[in-house]
Amino acid sequence: MTMNRPYNFSAGPAAIPEEVLQQAAAEMLDWHGSGMGVMEMSHRGKEFIAIYEQAEADLRELLAVPPEFKILFMQGGGLAENAIVPLNLSRAATVDFVVTGSWSQKSRKEAAKYAAEVRTAASGEESHFTTLPDPAGWQLSRGASYVHICSNETIHGVEFQELPDLRALGSDAPLVIDFSSHVASRPVDWSRVSLAFGGAQKNLGPAGLTLVVVREDLLGHALPACPSAFDYKIVAENHSMFNTPPTWGIYMAGLTFQWLKRQREGAASGVAAMEQRNIAKARLLYDFIDQSQFYVNKVAANCRSRMNIPFFLRDESRNDAFLAGAKERGLLQLKGHKSVGGMRASIYNAMPLAGVQALVDYLQDFERTAA
Ligand SMILES: Cc1ncc(COP(=O)(O)O)c(C=O)c1O
User: Fold this and answer.
1) What is the pLDDT of residues 79-108, one digit of tens each?
2) Chosen domain end from 260, 283, 307
3) Could you say which residues bind pyridoxal 5'-phosphate here (predicted)?
4) Which residues have C-beta atoms less than 6 Å from ligand 1?
């Protein structure tokens, strides 16, 4: 059974593929004849262990995570990782940040509580975060414990189209990426990344699950004050079950991974198929906005996010009418983040091309009737 649901452009928690929701609904009261719903199972029972192991294996396959990386399913979201990463990796020394928008700004501020020194290697602030600073100009510190970037800034709508190669820039520091808002939308170049973290609630499932993918050699250096439940080594040794993991979130993410594995675009499948679809979706929306005199996106073309597309009506007095009309058409949660204003369309993996086309049709009609 499929329902005619509205298109949901929320930045997160965000739309989940309908097939995944349907399957979760069907299994809600009785998972695979066990007589229990997933939320009611012991995390140490064979049923949940099977769910966990399948989810981990599917994610490893989908993101092509190399064997020397551990996959951790944690709690606390992206903001908790802003503390957990420096607690584990800073070694109370210097850490470098590249500030490209609100999320990396927040990460830098939090890290200052734990690292001896936090340096800003580069910032996009002068451009009001409409461009990404060119890695060739980054001022990387000698001997930094790590370099942090946010690879997709959800609020400002800028995305690294290629991850920086720190070695080529003369640094041997590990690269940490916050990939909360574009995980599984494109492949990850693990040869350039040492740790990636992200909340699940945009592209992987419900809020409450935090994904960490970390290279093994970075484990075991936590500061003495690091809570045991946040010490990556302890979490890894206990297969994410040092404490009770977010079992429902892991299950829902697991269903999403299965859904991702089923996706096809030509010869491509999984994340490669999603990437093709995401390129097509983003192009459709940006091309429309760019040719219009009525709407504007201010981000430099080579830095634009495929996932989060902030845009403005040139006449902002029409914002409320725009949002009301969108809602009537079944186009939900298009209001921009309060710090930026305007509108934002988040078009994660669960948003089909037809949803973006419906938005473009509405943009066109609203422009026409407002003229
Ligand atoms: C890129 C990025 N990092 C971190 C966060 C914060 O995540 P959480 O609210 O799960 O702590 C968000 C949330 O929107 C985000 O988009």
Assistant:
1) 999 999 999 999 989 999 999 999 999 999
2) 260
3) 103, 154, 178, 201, 243-244
4) 12, 77-79, 103, 150, 154, 178, 180-181, 199
